Amino acid sequence: MRPPPAPSTRIFLLARSAPLAPEYAPAAHSGDGGYPAYYHRVWTVLSGLGYRVTTSNHFRDLYTQAQSIDLVFSLYNCAPFDNPEIFVASTCEFLHLPHIGAKPNIRALAEDKWLSKNFARAIGMPVTEGAIFARPQDMKTEPPFPGPYFIKSRFGAASEGVSEQSMQEDWAGAKRVAGALFERGASVLVEQYAEGLDVTVPVLGGATPILLGLVHPRSDRLGAIITEELKRDDPLGYELFDAGKKTMSFFDDAQKLWSAAGPMDYLRLDYRYDPKTGKRVFLEFNLCCHIGRSGAICLAASRWGLSQEDVLGHVIEYSLGRQARQVETRRWAL
């Protein structure tokens, strides 16, 4: 889908380090790595497509500017309160504001790695064994599967808290790493470590999901894992990946996920994949994934001759069409 020649849509772009009026210069925020430049580029592209784009780095502006917003595009994933990822989607529903992504309940499913793992298993997708732990004392009992283990936060975005220490051979090491996460206020998900490398499946929304291909995020870390540092600074980038005859298995999974949880505007399905055995295991799906020029979605789209402008224009127009009923409801509610 493409924007009309002179789109009238008023987009509200929300991000922690969004470029702000009047200069719209890339903003600086401690610990944000390359994200300020990414947000600035998204603003530049949306403005270049002709949309009227207002930017903000404050949630409260959703309330004060609701009357002048046609579509909320939030890239604000990390905020200083628990489970912030679904806040914007829920607020937009309360305000009858169309928003990029998916309904809040689907966003909540995606942000809970334990629920999404069990959801995926229920619809026939392969997953790793896992167990959740809310308190340090819960870890006195080992999970019903052997190591090696991979320890991460149950909730959260951008591989927060993931490092090479997340891989542990035994339960003593797993408890030590989990203890550091508990100190940060996190609930913990312990999974059976899956050999191989990370592979992701970028998808755009459509009458049927648009499956763009397979992408491998490069890693020079132990186990070829993607750490918080790599996700934040992205020094190694991504590359297109060919799984040969196994590719259709990934695409079948995406179709299953879409049938059960769609529609969604854009997303990524993340896996561990072992090229030696052809075994894949689903890890999570992401509804607010990187949609910059150097990210997995735009790289996969470029394979089909699509630019970042094409991708963002499609996402905006598909989302507006998907939520047309909500737009009409808003005329009467506000």
TrEMBL record:
Recorded superkingdom: Bacteria
Signal peptide, first to last residue: none
Record carries keyword Protein transport: no
Name of the protein in its database record: ATP-grasp domain-containing protein
Record-annotated ATP-grasp domain positions: 117-317
Keywords assigned by UniProt, alphabetized: ATP-binding, Nucleotide-binding
Species name: Methylocystis heyeri
GO MF annotations in UniProt: ATP binding; D-alanine-D-alanine ligase activity; metal ion binding
